Amino acid sequence: MRDLSIYIHIPFCVRKCLYCDFLSGLARGGEMESYVNLLLREIKKQAIFYGDHRVISIFLGGGTPSLLPAWETGRILERVREEFLLTEDAEITIECNPGTVTAEKLENYITYGINRLSIGLQSTDDGELARIGRIHDYGSFLETYRLAREAGFRNVNIDLMAGLPGQSLASYRKTLERVVALSPEHISAYSLILEEGTPLYVNQKEYTFPDEEEEREMYELTGRCLEKAGFHRYEISNYAREGRECRHNKVYWCRGDYAGFGLGASSMVRNVRWKNPDGQADYAACVEKMEADALNRVAGITETETDRTARMKKICPKGMDFAEMLRQTGRREVQILTTQEQMEEFMFLGLRLTEGVDLQDFQRYFGKTAEEVYGEQISSFEKQGLLKREGRRLRLTPRGVDVSNVVFSAFLL
Ligand code: SF4
């Protein structure tokens, strides 16, 4: 059986943060329920293609998934369990923003089997939070964190951001120290990216941002401070206690199979990539098409073949049939990755991980050594001290991490 990770997109937020260009919007009355109904239909219909997969992780992301009433979250997970085979130790994460959960909601999450919480804090400085339009202050984060621990969450991630307007090295250090003192199991620390069209981008002249040098210092400070506190960096922007790396995200970097459900969700299964429609009406049409008979004809199955063994025998989502089904049902950017594209992804996604890429795996997957394909790039970066080989692994050096984008782009053939 192949491993599968499931991403479920919940596109609702209390209000839009000023830097946000994610697919999310304000939740209006009744919208959540009808969206969840669509999701349940999509999960049921699409599950028929994954009879030979077992689910190792589920990630409810957004948006603000914690805005959903708890019973709606329960309905989603129940549907996934009905339709998919979950491993006993599956990692099930929900993203949550401070102030959007109660003790009761968190207890319900535990009952539904959610075993990892990812809290979007970004900063402990209330001025910085206000400047980027977050809905919460540090106090409401502390309350959410306390409730999460009391409810029994033993695997908590905290999201942080560097490069915020008005942020100084000293205030960033304070954020890191305060978060470390809470002893979460995982910390993600990304830099703010000014996305075109967002209010922060449009009004950027009104703010003072840390300059490049300060941002680099913040990045280095993150590493020093978190490593001293017992976290290890396992990816460029992600730190974990031993054994607490995010299994779900590692699937993306290691090019495992993942299926995305919901508005705009991305998927990659057996080297076929696609995206769900971005608009609500298009998404609804996509689900309806999946339910139509035409889909069953393409896949060669019938409504009555609901039992898992029968599906496994008959369904093999590869090649044109699967891609054609995706196109017919309104999925966007359906792409069957060429061997060259697979090699490129193998390198630039795998090099994001501190452990780097496994050169023997490269040869096993592609029938060629990495040196045959990327000999020039590898030896040039080794000479410059940006890449280092250790046994069968090739990874970025600390200097390589600093210029990782340059290294990654060199692996695009
Ligand atoms: S909470 Fe997240 S998804 Fe929602 S608006 Fe803010 S940044 Fe965007």
How large a portion of the residues is in β-strands, by DSSP E?
15-25%
Please list the strands of the largest sheet in the order they lie side by side. 9-10-8-7-6-5-4-1-11
What's the name of the CATH homologous superfamily of the largest domain?
Aldolase class I
Assign the CATH topology of the largest domain.
TIM Barrel
| Ligands | iron/sulfur cluster
Query: Distance between termini?
Result: 32 Å
Give the low-pLDDT segments.
312-320
CATH class of the largest domain: Alpha Beta
Account of the 3D structure:
Helix content is 44%, strand content 22%. By secondary structure, the chain is α/β, with parallel strands linked by helices. It folds into two domains: 2-253, Alpha-Beta Barrel (TIM Barrel), CATH 3.20.20.70; 339-410, Arc Repressor Mutant, subunit A (Orthogonal Bundle), CATH 1.10.10.920. The chain has a nine-stranded mixed beta sheet with strand order 9-10-8-7-6-5-4-1-11, sandwiched between helices. It has a three-stranded antiparallel beta sheet with strand order 12-13-14, with helices on one face. It has a three-stranded antiparallel beta sheet with strand order 15-17-16. The chain binds iron/sulfur cluster. The site of iron/sulfur cluster (SF4) has 11 residues, from loops.
